[in-house]
């Protein structure tokens, strides 16, 4: 099916993220928590980039810096070669070229799904109000949410809400979609459906995806690349190229290649998690 | 072909159950009838206790001093046809709503300003916090002196009763809006005005209504007390508080109880009004 709502170039050209030598120290005048330490990453346009690493290592910190939620201490972050933040402007602006889908979901509870999706175009005055709602409805319909468009987020399942949230992000035609453990705490079956829905939307939009997860299978199933991060302070420990053919579906999960990739990622993550645990024990002692 | 269309959301409509009104559901539940039985038993006991003194020469503590419910009902039947009784309602409602509405009009913007502006908060919150613990009734004598008419001082004290509660609720509600909503809105291109009008305001509405409900309760307390204290004087007569007070002065226990029940009903109607209003203004809260 060809989408009328989201159009995608065959070869993505927008949404390259360069993270160069970024350091983030929380509370520099006091406790000095170094969350990210000279971290560098090059994310190609339209790449699905999966970030895994021990809890508390600084993944969200990096995402927040890209999104413009907080400043960085050193280094710079570029989007398509244009600096978002750097030594001169440590805080990136918040703009609709980078949209975040949060861990617990951030659909406005006081708006229906259609109103939620229409929110971005409406505040940006992209189209007249009625048209915004019209297009929001169409986008939801395309994502299989047509019959819950007029429900409030509290009235639909968490899976539907999360899909609607991704629709809400994509209608703004962002260059980058930032997802912070969006499917955490979902059961395996719902997750699988979420993954297929996300991949389908990805195929239509080819938006660059920066996706944080703790679930290695999720990372490998969805990603072009999996970045394994070190324990805090955060750096890239290992990049795993996922050359599984697309489109992927549930049969991918049982393939030998998939299993080997999970094993490789697991070893890298496990090593870091162990370090994090031991560091934690030292701190407690 | 897309993977998404096969989702459960596309399944055929589920079987429709016949919807029953709240009333229908209540009447058909045993809880409802147990409640009715409880009330009837209470009234019967009361009636017996009141009658026992005359009928058996036996004074049951507490109940013995009360007029029988039948006597109260008789007094009520007499009273409700008098326009003066309904004027008491009007007087009290005027004061309650007057103070309450002013408290909302001033309290909501004040609370929001405290929440969104750091400088405003730094300057105005400390004096607010100093005044807040003073019980509204402690203001009665001062406001009687300060305001030219008794009526104004009652409304002022009523206003104070609701104002502090509303402000604290609005401030708390606006300050605890999840930062995710603000960030999401901002990253979709919301301006400061949009953040305020489309995120902070609707996000604070539940707290505004909580504040309003609590404030309304306080308002009735304050109005009744103020009417009892000052209503007996020359200028500001009337009101349900004064109705009770003058019944007490006149030694009519039946009328005191009629007044008490009237106030119960009046207070209930006020909270019901706020609840209905809240459901209309916040349709998303109705669902669960
Ligand atoms: N505002 C803050 N002030 C001080 N320290 C902070 C702050 N936010 C996060 N940290 C610390 O920075 C480190 C990295 O946090 P971050 O949230 O980025 O980790 P994470 O990798 O996203 O973890 P998780 O996988 O648990 O979500 C943590 O040790 C955390 O305690
Ligand atoms: Mg995190």
Radius of gyration of chain B (CA) equals 25 Å
Helical percentage of chain A: 25-40%
Strand content of chain A: 15-25%
Helix percentage of chain B: over 70%
List the topology elements.
The complex is a heterodimer of chains A (285) and B (288).
Chain A: E1 17-26, E2 33-43, E3 48-52, H1 59-67, E4 74-79, E5 82-85, E6 98-101, H2 113-123, H3 129-142, H4 158-170, E7 176-180, H5 188-205, E8 208-212, H6 216-222, E9 225-229, E10 236-241, H7 256-284
Parallel strand pairs in A: 3-8, 3-9, 6-7, 7-8
Antiparallel strand pairs in A: 1-2, 1-4, 4-5, 9-10
Helix pairs in contact in A: 2-3, 2-4, 4-5, 6-7
Chain B: H1 22-27, H2 30-56, H3 69-79, H4 83-116, H5 118-131, H6 140-146, H7 150-175, H8 179-187, H9 192-230, H10 240-249, H11 253-281
Helix pairs in contact in B: 3-11, 4-5, 4-7, 4-9, 4-10, 6-7, 7-9, 8-9, 9-10, 9-11, 10-11
Structure commentary:
- The complex is a heterodimer of chains A (285) and B (288).
- Chain A has helices at 59-67, 113-123, 129-142, 158-170, 188-205, 216-222, 256-284, and strands at 17-26, 33-43, 48-52, 74-79, 82-85, 98-101, 176-180, 208-212, 225-229, 236-241.
- The model of chain A has no long low-confidence stretch (mean pLDDT 87).
- Chain A folds into two domains: 17-97 and 175-279, P-loop containing nucleotide triphosphate hydrolases (Rossmann fold, 3-Layer(aba) Sandwich), CATH 3.40.50.300; 109-173, no CATH class.
- Chain A is globular and about 55 Å long.
- With 285 residues, chain A is of the alpha/beta class.
- Chain A is built from seven helices and ten strands.
- In chain A, α2 (113-123) crosses α3.
- In chain A, β7, α5 (188-205) and β8 (208-212) form a beta-alpha-beta unit.
- The longest helix of chain A is centred in the last third of the chain and has 29 residues, at 256-284.
- In chain A, the strands form two sheets. In chain A, strands 6-7-8-3-9-10 form a six-stranded mixed β-sheet, with helices on both faces. A four-stranded antiparallel β-sheet of chain A has the order 2-1-4-5, with helices on one face.
- With 288 residues, chain B is mainly α.
- Chain B has two domains: 26-66; 67-285, MetI-like (MetI-like fold).
- Helices cover 74% and strands 0% of the residues of chain B.
- Chain B contains eleven helices and no strands.
- Chain B is flat.
- The two termini of chain B are 35 Å apart.
- The model of chain B is unreliable at 1-6 (pLDDT under 50).
- The interface between A and B is large, with 41 and 31 residues.
- Adenosine-5'-triphosphate (ATP) is lined by residues 26-27, 33, 35, 55-61, 232 of chain A.
């Amino acid at each position: 099916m060809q989408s009328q709502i989201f159009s995608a170039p065959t070869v993505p050209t927008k949404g390259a993220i360069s993270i160069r030598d970024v350091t983030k120290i929380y509370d520099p005048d006091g406790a000095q928590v170094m969350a990210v330490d000279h971290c560098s990453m090059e994310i190609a346009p339209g790449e699905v980039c999966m970030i895994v690493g021990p809890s508390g290592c600084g993944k969200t910190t990096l995402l927040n810096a890209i999104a413009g939620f907080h400043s960085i201490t050193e280094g710079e972050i570029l989007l398509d070669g244009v600096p978002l933040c750097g030594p001169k402007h440590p805080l990136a602006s918040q703009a609709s070229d980078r949209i975040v889908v949060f861990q617990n979901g951030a659909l406005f509870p006081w708006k229906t799904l259609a109103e939620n999706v229409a929110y971005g175009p409406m505040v940006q005055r992209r189209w007249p109000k009625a048209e915004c709602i019209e297009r929001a409805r169409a986008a939801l319909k395309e994502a299989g949410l047509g019959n819950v468009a007029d429900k409030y987020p509290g009235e639909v399942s968490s899976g539907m809400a999360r899909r609607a949230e991704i629709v809400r992000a994509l209608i703004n035609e962002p260059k980058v979609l930032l997802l912070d453990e969006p499917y955490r705490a979902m059961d395996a079956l719902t997750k699988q459906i979420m993954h297929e829905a996300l991949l389908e939307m990805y195929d239509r939009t080819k938006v660059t995806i920066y996706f944080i997860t703790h679930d290695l299978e999720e990372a490998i199933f969805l990603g072009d690349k999996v970045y394994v991060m070190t324990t805090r302070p955060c750096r890239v420990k290992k990049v795993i190229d996922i050359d599984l053919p697309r489109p992927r579906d549930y049969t991918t999960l049982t393939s030998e290649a998939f299993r080997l990739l999970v094993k490789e990622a697991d070893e890298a993550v496990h090593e870091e998690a162990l370090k994090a645990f031991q560091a934690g024990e030292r701190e407690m002692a | 072909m897309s993977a998404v269309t096969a989702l459960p959301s596309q399944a055929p409509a589920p079987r429709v159950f016949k919807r029953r009104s709240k009333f229908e559901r209540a009447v058909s539940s045993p809880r409802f009838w147990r409640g009715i039985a409880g009330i009837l038993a209470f009234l019967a006991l009361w009636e017996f206790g009141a009658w026992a003194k005359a009928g058996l020469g036996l004074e049951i503590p507490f109940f013995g001093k009360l007029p029988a419910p039948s006597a109260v009902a008789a007094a009520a039947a007499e009273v409700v046809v008098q326009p003066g009784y309904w004027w008491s309602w009007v007087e009290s409602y005027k004061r309650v709503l007057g103070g309450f509405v002013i408290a909302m009009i001033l309290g909501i913007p004040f609370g929001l300003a405290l929440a969104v502006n750091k400088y405003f908060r730094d300057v105005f919150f400390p004096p607010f916090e100093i005044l807040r613990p003073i019980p509204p009734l402690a203001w009665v004598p001062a406001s009687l002196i300060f305001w030219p008419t008794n009526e104004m001082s009652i409304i002022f004290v009523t206003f104070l009763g609701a104002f502090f509660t509303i402000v604290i609720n609005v401030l708390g509600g606006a300050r605890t809006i999840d930062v995710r909503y603000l960030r999401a809105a901002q990253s979709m291109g919301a301006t400061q005005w949009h953040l305020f009008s489309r995120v902070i305001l609707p996000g604070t509405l539940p707290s505004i209504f909580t504040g309003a409900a609590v404030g309304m309760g306080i308002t009735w307390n304050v109005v009744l007390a103020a009417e009892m204290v000052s209503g007996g004087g020359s200028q500001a007569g009337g009101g349900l508080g004064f109705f009770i007070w003058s019944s007490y002065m006149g030694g009519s226990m039946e009328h005191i109880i009629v007044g008490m029940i009237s106030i119960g009903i009046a207070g209930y109607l006020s909270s019901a009004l706020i609840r209905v209003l809240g459901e209309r203004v916040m349709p998303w809260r109705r669902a669960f």
